[in-house]
Amino acid sequence: MPTLSVFMDVPMAHKLEGSLLKSYKQDDYPKKMFLAYRVCMTEDGHPWVSPVVSKLRMQIAQDPSLNYEYTPVMGMKSFIQASLELLFGKHSQAIVENRVGGVHTVGDNGAFQLGATFLRTWHHDSQIVYIISLQKELHGLVFQDMGFTVYEYSFWDPKRMCMDPNILISVVKQAPRGSVLAVGNIADCNLTQSQWTKLMCIMKSKQIFPFFDIPNQGFSSGDLNEDSKILRYFVAKGFEFFCSQSLSKNFGIYDEGVGILVVVARSNQHLLCVLSQMMTFAHVLWYNPPTTGARIITSILCNPALQGEWKHSLKMVVENIVLTKEKVKEKLRLLGTPGSWDHITAQKGTHSYLGLNSQQLEYLVKKKHIYIPKNGRINFTSINANNIDYITQSINEAILFTMGL
Amino acid sequence: MPTLSVFMDVPMAHKLEGSLLKSYKQDDYPKKMFLAYRVCMTEDGHPWVSPVVSKLRMQIAQDPSLNYEYTPVMGMKSFIQASLELLFGKHSQAIVENRVGGVHTVGDNGAFQLGATFLRTWHHDSQIVYIISLQKELHGLVFQDMGFTVYEYSFWDPKRMCMDPNILISVVKQAPRGSVLAVGNIADCNLTQSQWTKLMCIMKSKQIFPFFDIPNQGFSSGDLNEDSKILRYFVAKGFEFFCSQSLSKNFGIYDEGVGILVVVARSNQHLLCVLSQMMTFAHVLWYNPPTTGARIITSILCNPALQGEWKHSLKMVVENIVLTKEKVKEKLRLLGTPGSWDHITAQKGTHSYLGLNSQQLEYLVKKKHIYIPKNGRINFTSINANNIDYITQSINEAILFTMGL
């Protein structure tokens, strides 16, 4: 009799994600379209790459002085330095005081993995994490798998069809003392200065630990400083925090996972202790992070002319997003689509809520072959001159159809 | 009063490794040398890169069709396929039967991380791991951190100054039923065919689960098939196992961590279940693996002419290692150094034991500024025409000096 498989008890895993993309790929309809790509797309439907990146790839491949040796566990020092300056500004007081540092990670998942591992071991106050629901699937799982209790919150109010920044304040009010608050893309949060101040006040009194996520600095306003302004405000107010800084999306290096787990501490001494512990975790997690992306980015950031080209390319992307949203709104207005569509232009960034209900979304997917995630948040860079009419007409149809139900 | 730091209880971490390299770097002695590099070195003391890799880097940088988009969680399919064929042979029955698969990982650490995560969840038999002591620091920690009980074993018998393949058999004899046996670089294990057969017999009866490590296929014998022969033997005997396959070292792409966690299962159905579970883990660990290295390697493996160039470069490396070991032995003989030095040429691979005791090693580090790890295992590719005389004379001195103690 043959022996049984060691794996006989292992069932097929539930699909985590990608099933929407899978359905899209299996669809034979010629006009099908997918509006849920994570990456920024170009006008002709390809993943966006900052033009200066392609130039650097060539330069690096031709450089005979590079030896592609193992990087230290901490990662590329020059990359970390340049990225921190991007986040906090060159003349940041915290950088001058040597109390800001980072570990080069395998993308933002790596940064959350490393941060969560650290907090599990050293954050004795609480093992509770509040996370924005958009990030739940990607980063919430990291915390969950490590035994944290994870609660979701969402900025989007589907009834009022707008972002509700007050949600963050009510989350913090109810959170137990010492909880971790994962704040997704702060530049898209829509909080006013006074709302941030109020939030900080409560966070400080309850010792809530912030874990920020900067997935694509520059893609909200087109201005790098503007997009990390709030982070600098937290530093100025004396907060200690972690921040996942990803540079894959805003350079267009998606296949590398170029990330940093940023640490802001009260003093250099605390920072060094935290980083030393993180190195022991990174040693076990991946030993040395991939450097191709980091090398490209460092070369760009350390050269003012190249950095200028890159910044310009970010501005162009954001201008295009703003224009696309305006066009979608205008086309819906011209079609006489019921409802106000101001919420589309009121949201910043590549991804925004369309503000459709589940029946309308189902209509778009099933009848019009337009693939949109269940939360109705689409990638606006996927909309271009070739498909904007089909998309807006379909949205109009979906709304008229479901009104009659 | 200022608030206290969140990190106030975090101490400085103990140094894991790298302190030998650090001491070396801080040493001002002009003739200092470091014989503990993990990577293969060239005659002129640089990390080795297969010449065909540099060529491919250029080609890939110039390719306008590449979009550097996110790879799927599983990684690059073509890379996995080509690497599995390298390991098991193109006409492997297991490949034909679709019961061999893999997940593209962030280097070998990633492969062990993923494998250990899986085993923690699904290997209910036992949470005990036996691991070769050389790998303890790198991979043993991965298991330890996940709560496995980890025992070390070593092939090297310092008294008899030889590799003792029987150690593996005695380890397996005493291991509890269902334990995991991590077997480092099988090509360097020195077991005879009949010893392997005996080992397999015990492993099968005790349901010991093998977790192989193929860190640099081709670097033991210069022949890829020869170096993975034993793995194929395990497949033929109906074993199910995991194998960490790293392609960083044998291509010379050290800064990328190009790895695969290979899974051999009894049937395609079992394989698919295992891979689906692994995808959920990889999703949390790193989401998408870095692809630069994988892309280069796939292009080489899928082109017979380029693959030929690569294989030739491996042969050259191995020929050079064999020659260096012969030279070291001969020089020690000519110096009249006491003892037999046959154990140097009897060992295969880039790294081999010198067979010195702790006093002799201390003498070399402290008096001669030759940096060698405590286990006395050095990287023979670090020895070249410029330093071989100094090294052999120093070894001779160390032995004469400690004989007089």
UniProtKB/TrEMBL annotation, chains A, B:
Keywords from the UniProt entry: Aminotransferase, Cytoplasm, Pyridoxal phosphate, Transferase
Annotated InterPro entries: Aminotransferase_I/II_large, Asp_trans, PyrdxlP-dep_Trfase, PyrdxlP-dep_Trfase_major, PyrdxlP-dep_Trfase_small
GO cellular component: cytosol
Highest taxon of the lineage: Eukaryota
GO MF term list: L-aspartate:2-oxoglutarate aminotransferase activity; pyridoxal phosphate binding
Organism this protein belongs to: Orycteropus afer afer
UniProt record, GO biological process: aspartate biosynthetic process
EC number(s) reported in the record: 2.6.1.1
Gene it is expressed from: GOT1L1
SUPFAM superfamilies: PLP-dependent transferases
Reactions performed catalytically: L-aspartate + 2-oxoglutarate = oxaloacetate + L-glutamate
Cofactor(s) required for function per UniProt: pyridoxal 5'-phosphate
Occurrences of domain Aminotransferase class I/classII large (ranges): 41-395
Location of this chain's protein in the cell: Cytoplasm
Protein name: Putative aspartate aminotransferase, cytoplasmic 2
Assembly behavior: Homodimer.
Family in the record: Belongs to the class-I pyridoxal-phosphate-dependent aminotransferase family.
